[in-house]
UniProtKB/TrEMBL annotation:
It holds the Pfam family Amidohydro_3. This is Amidohydrolase family protein. CDD domains: D-aminoacylase. It comes from the Bacteria. It comes from Kineococcus halophytocola.
């Protein structure tokens, strides 16, 4: 159906000043902008008082299974997201073999649940084909380095052999040829954390040759944050790969007020000619699994091995020392503060009563030691517990989002009783809280952060902007009311003030109501020698 959007405020995604005008959508693309006369056969949408912008592009999403199992996908469609980038933090479900998939389904239960679906893919291309059966939004994919290592090396803490490195490079190359846009790493998660710098460089050389980018979750966002950022910049320098710093933060007490030091490192890399971008979410707490704070040596070998250590008195003694005295690398080099770890979701229904409480609060209620509670919860929940980690700093969040290479990314987990509200609220929170209420960013500038800049990072030439010929991935929002409906108490509330969202010209939200359309598809990166969809 052709559509004429009449009388909107056009914010085109480039950062240019807003202007009043119309937009004509024909066969899924923008046919005209400005003053558009009466067009026979087009449905007219009165957009007076609304901003028309390109659909938002979420550069860091965790909907890897939700796009397959949840046709409504309300968390994403209702906040104006039309494209999301999956395969994040070095862990996802392609490429896999049967053995690695069995481990990953357990390991990632806290991120994505373990839904009842037909796991009928193994390669990146097969996963993207599965998305093409029908999705609410478009999907771009990153080859997950930890998953690749799980297939080839396993989950043990050891260097890859020369032959294993060759095989990992082959899997990365195959994923890029299948249409992946780059590679991600999770360098605080098993088994990606066991890769050294040289191994990362070798894999990133393959990504660079295919024209992709590297998106690392680095080794620390706490005590070792600047050194960790420096390592991934060095990986980019040595391999020639473009670098995207995912959920770029400076967290924990040791980094309060230190965003400027991080941004100076980014600016120095840019001055040296490196291609660097970054994304953030507009909230203070982080979100991860409770098991992620374990020291790396205790996380080796996969879920079964971890659970065995949690029953070994000597291993528990070492784990306690790492967490409460030394500073666990899983907790970003700082001593665990049990008052900052708030349970957001559990796998075992018998633990539902602790959701919303911190480990310290659970310990007080039980009259127990916090470390003992931590271990008990991990055991009973089979490592499936998710947590909010209250370690952020407002001044750092604001400073980083102002950077000219900044983009938006939600990093939102969709499972659990009380997940982080960023899964439902990131993009309207930028527009409502940080633009309208706080004035940290101007409207046109913020829309550019959420649209054209991530489109450039992905190399999508016909998305992320309003111009004739561009794909009609569009969002209409009310700048006076747009806001995140999701809160920490009610994290699954849809956005306010976003009445219309189109994916490829097809309404997925109309008058604030989700339609039944599933026009999204897998976007495939154009690699040398291939002719594929953009």
């Amino acid at each position: 159906m052709n559509l004429l959007v009449r009388g909107a405020t056009l914010v085109d995604g480039t950062g240019a000043p807003a202007r009043r005008g119309d937009a004509l959508v024909v066969e899924g693309r923008i046919a005209a902008l400005g003053e558009v006369g009466t067009t026979a056969g087009a449905r007219v949408l009165d957009a007076r008082g609304l901003v028309l912008a390109p659909g938002f592009i979420d550069l860091h999403a965790h909907s890897d299974l939700a796009v397959l199992t949840d046709p409504g996908h309300l968390a994403r469609t209702t906040q104006g997201i039309t494209t999301e980038v999956l395969g994040q933090d070095g862990l996802s479900y392609a490429p896999v073999d049967d053995a690695a998939l069995a481990v990953l389904r357990e390991q990632l239960a806290g991120w994505n649940g373990v839904p009842d679906l037909e796991w009928d893919w193994r390669t990146v291309g097969e996963y993207l084909d599965r998305v093409d059966r029908g999705a609410a939004v478009n999907v771009a994919y990153l080859v997950p380095q930890g998953t690749v290592r799980a297939v080839v090396v396993g989950t043990q803490d050891r260097p890859a052999t020369a032959a294993e490195l060759v095989r990992m490079r082959e899997l990365v190359a195959a994923g890029m040829a299948d249409g992946a846009f780059g590679m991600s790493s999770g360098l605080t998660y098993v088994p990606g954390m066991f890769a050294g710098t040289d191994e990362l460089v070798a894999l990133c050389e393959v990504v660079a040759a295919a024209g992709g980018f590297y998106a690392p979750h680095q080794r620390s966002y706490g005590r070792g944050a600047l050194a960790a950022y420096a390592e991934v910049v060095e990986v980019a320098r040595r391999s020639g790969v473009a670098l995207h710093l995912t959920h770029a933060t400076m967290n924990f007490a040791v980094n309060a007020g230190r965003a400027g030091e991080f941004l100076a490192l980014v600016d120095a890399a840019l001055a040296d000619g490196l291609d660097v971008t970054l994304d953030t979410y507009p909230y203070l707490p982080g979100s991860t699994t409770l098991a992620a704070v374990l020291p790396s040596w205790a996380s080796a070998g996969g879920p079964a091995a971890v659970l065995q250590r949690l029953r070994d008195p000597e291993a528990l003694r070492r784990i306690r020392y790492a967490l409460e005295v030394q500073g666990s690398d899983g907790c970003h080099g700082v001593v665990a503060d049990w008052a900052t770890l708030q349970v957001s979701g559990v796998r075992d229904p018998g633990l539902s009563g602790i959701v919303g409480a911190t480990i310290a609060q659970v310990a007080r209620a039980r009259g127990a030691d916090p470390f003992d509670v931590f271990v008990d919860v991990l055991r009973r929940d089979r490592l499936g517990t998710t947590v909010l980690q209250h370690v952020g700093h407002e001044e750092n969040v604001r400073a980083i989002m102002r950077h000219p290479r900044h983009c938006g990314g939600s990093d939102g987990l969709l499972v659990g009783a009380r997940p982080h509200p960023r899964a439902w609220g990131t993009f309207p929170r930028y527009l409502g809280h940080y633009v309208r209420e706080e004035g940290v960013l101007g409207l046109e500038e913020c829309v550019a952060h959420l649209t054209s800049r991530p489109a450039r990072r992905l190399g999508l030439r016909d998305r992320g902007v309003l111009r004739p010929g561009a794909v009609a991935d569009l969002v209409l929002f009310d700048p006076a009311t747009v806001a995140a409906g999701a809160t920490f108490q009610e994290p699954r509330e849809p956005a306010v003030g976003i009445p219309h969202v189109l994916v490829g010209g097809v309404p997925v939200v109309s008058d604030g109501v989700r339609t039944d359309a599933v026009p999204g598809r897998a976007l495939r990166h154009r690699t040398p020698g291939r002719t594929v969809a953009p």
